[in-house]
Amino acid sequence: MKNKDNINEIINFLQSEGTGVITTDEAAIEKAYTSLHGEQTLVIKVISILGGIFASSVFFGFMFIAGLYESPTALWLTGFVAIGASVLLSRISDRILLDTICISCFIVGLVMVGAGLSDSTPSAQILSLYFVVISCACLLLSQNYVLSFASTLVVNGSLICLIQSSKLHELLHVHIACLALLLCYLILQEAKVLSSGKAIAAKYGPIRTGLLFSFVSSLLLVNTNFFVQLAPETRWISTALCIVLLCYVVTRLFNTLSISSLPSKLLILALVALTLAPTALTPGIAATLLLLMLSFAAHYKTGMVVSAMAFIYFAGLFYYDLNFTLLTKSIMLFCSGLFFIVLYLLTTKKANNHENI
Amino acid sequence: MKHIQREDIHILARHSDVGEEGIDRALTAFVYPKAPAWHRFLRILFLVLGLGFSVLGIIFFFAYNWADLHKFAKLGIVETLLLLTTALSLHPKFNKDARNIILTGSAVLVGVLFAVFGQIYQTGANAYDFFLAWTLFIALWTLIANFAPLWLLFLVLANTTFILYGEQVAADWDATLLFTFLFLGNALCLLLITVIPKYRSNQPIPIYFSNIVALATATFATIGIVLGIIDNEHAQLPVLSASVGILYAIGIWYALKNNNSFYLALIPFSIIVIITAILFDIFDEEYMYLFVSFFIIVSVTLVVRNLIHLQKRNNHEKQG
After folding, report:
1. What is the pTM of this model?
2. What is the ipTM of this complex?
3. Do B50 and A334 touch (CB under 8 A)?
4. A343 vs B46: CB contact, 8 Å cut-off?
């Protein structure tokens, strides 16, 4: 089979590099490939998710009309049953077919638990804490791409709700810092994560994508003051961390690009830090550039697309918020453009020099 | 040579005793980009940022001074830009794709020119006039260039013109009639797109283009029928339903013959939405919601199951 040959080719390559003899579980590999064939199409994934959302929204309509919300206890009990059913479903069957039912149960269950518990819990804080615990449990127990992805999103959402309900809004920076560090680790140390256990290795993809989307949404919250009110002066904390991480990624790049002289390395790092310093109040710019570099380094296409679109948005936001006249802004934009064109010409010249030598 | 992908390495990692170092070596060799790819990426990044910011700077500069410009200056600037881009698109130095992209830019500038004209002279014309003029003036370019994005722009403009005409001039049309026309028009385009490559095989039509037109056609059909059901305007509904039914049947037959999974997902999904609307209209009780949600789950599951079977059959035929 075509894909089995890929595995053999990788094993041959590794053994030729001297990693020793490798034993494989052939039956499990066969099974993984046959279930993979059915999962590959984007169309099928999209239809399952859309169908799930459509079905659960209609179900909510039923809930409200039938007056199910009158008994909170019944509500959250049914909710727990629904969540449990979705996790169970994800474990006993790995057919993508049941994805629609799985995701519908999960969404419906979460909303029911929320609606049922909101009266009996003394504060929104404790409710958010409940959600964090429930979604963490779902993340650990589920064995399904879409469910793990959704659980990751819910964990992050409930953490942000926890921050907001505790009125400790500045903790959002800590949250963003943790997400940035986690994403860096996950993407750069892919091999380490993959070799640390079958369960975690299976969930690598959905957790990475879930963290990506959570990271971008948290960044959106920083500038809009919508849910969490941050003092503008504190925004530079997130930007500073992203710049540091970006410098770290660039340092790792020096080996690949064979840049070895210390002055050039320092110059490049200083350039990165100085270019991004003026954007201190919009952490999104430095963060999305970090994401773009990480995604390209790991050949992670979804990450590249999402970070590119987010970068365009945050760059636009930055220029929009500036308190200068349109004339000054236009000159600033043009100067930024010239700066990057100069960088482009420099890198092209260096590449040509390398080729000529 | 087979293309080794990340999934292969992940599967190997899960089901063998390859250590961290081995996985790292495999990823570096087969998945992660090497120096030349990085060089290209950085150069493209800087070029895009540089050009993007510079162009924006120029646009903002003109936006700042726009109100103070004399009207001939305004028209002159846009016309000069238009002439420049059109001349560039004829220059033999660029390859065909680049020239087509520049021509698409010119087509957008035609619209800008008409917008500036309308703003200066406060023509007070209905918006549909503007779009109609724009559509007509780029029709010849679209026909000759035969470039998919330009055709897409043309179709978007044609549809917008028609929708605005229906809203502003022919106000006695009801919504269903408008959507019937839109559906039939786009369906005709779709038929032409599907049939023409069989006779002129030198110009293959990109899949994304026919998929977008199909998506638009199905959307108009679905919205038209659902509106007709909700508004209880049953006058036009039979005509629309009959033509939609015929076209969907042809679509499914064509998709099965050519293993086109996009159509096989789009048409059933549209039918599911329509049946949901019918169910809500006929039975207005609370238990209907529960029944409808089960119906959606079951029908989507069936569609997905059929798509997977089709794909398995595809793969078997390719390997066999």
Report:
1. 0.74
2. 0.78
3. no
4. yes
